[in-house]
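TL;DR need structure tokens for one chain.
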Amino acid sequence: MKIGFFTDRYYPQVDGVAVSVELFAKELIKLGHEVIIFAPQSAGKKQVDPPYVIRFRSFPSIWYENHRDTMPFTPATIKKVHEQNLDIAHIHTPAQIGVLGMRVAKESGMPMVATHHCDIEQYVRVYKKMLIGVLLGILIAPALAKSLDSYKELLPYLKPQKSIKVWNHKLILESVGIFYQHCDAVIAPSVKMVNSLKDYATINNVYLLPTGVDFKATQIKTDFNPKQYYQIDDNCPLLLFVGRLGKEKNVQLIIRSMPKILERSPSTKLLIVGDGPYAQELRELAESSGASPSIIFTGMLDRARTLACFKAGDIFCFASLTDTQGLVLNEAAAVAKPMVFVDPAISALATDKVTGILANASVSSFSSACIKLINNKALAETYGKKAKSLALTMTIAKQAKKLLKIYLDIV
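>> reply
TL;DR here they are.
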């Protein structure tokens, strides 16, 4: 089978969509299928890609930080995609390249699958300029996708309403819902995203399929020792966050919890691995909290060093309420780390009193959960072992076979 992955988020950008696309593509290729990834050209030097990646010229987005916009709708580009003779189109983002995938699928009559990776409404609340991009997409996407009948369904929702909040809500739900209604199947990577789809529209053939755990990635060897490098005593409890430093990740809750944690466990350290548009604000928050001597920002690390940080940490902290499946939780589980988290539907590997502790999105609750695991090492170890055992049931090899079955069901 020849499968086209259409995504507006891909390496060198590192986020859940890019990681999921790459993991599934590599595994489907191992299973003997051909995968073509259609993605934006990266900034700066031309990206050196594997042969299964086709890039489109891109430019910095004015709607969303750290994003690349494209306009891949020239006759030559559309012809190039058609010439790939795909058997199925799998759309990972409902933006420009995703719309291109829909257009090619409709023109050729091939089956079309979409993964509901992103809760767009949540992101619009954090990044206000995104709404302008959504509005522009609503206005031009049906024409670009050659789906002019969609305008009839959208027109009633383009009329402004008294409440901007209600209008935003309806616009996003209806536009994304109509996009998914054109698909033969919609994949949700978590229970959270299955539930969110119920608000969008009447969508048939919804499949729950989390991205699998890549255990091979945990076997990368390195001489890098985070505790030695950052001068952390071996006896100090080490809390860990890994991910993009965006406002929506709610790392600020973890930082605000540190003073309370230090009251009960003065030697505790917090290691924050990653970079992003909110990094400076988080550093300033750490300074103003009074806990900055116990908080270490590593910046962006390569894969081997990031993995070393996962292994060195004692407790993985994740406070995001906008993530759709929290792939870093998979990595924490793969190396047997207990978790403190605030979203109970984000991952099958994050389960209260099984693999970690579910906290409320408050300083008192989050800090109490961390202290409980710091003070009870046996409990933390039990949760970590259970997390790893559950991760072994959800490897990327197993999940790719499930994805293939979805393709075969609709083909």
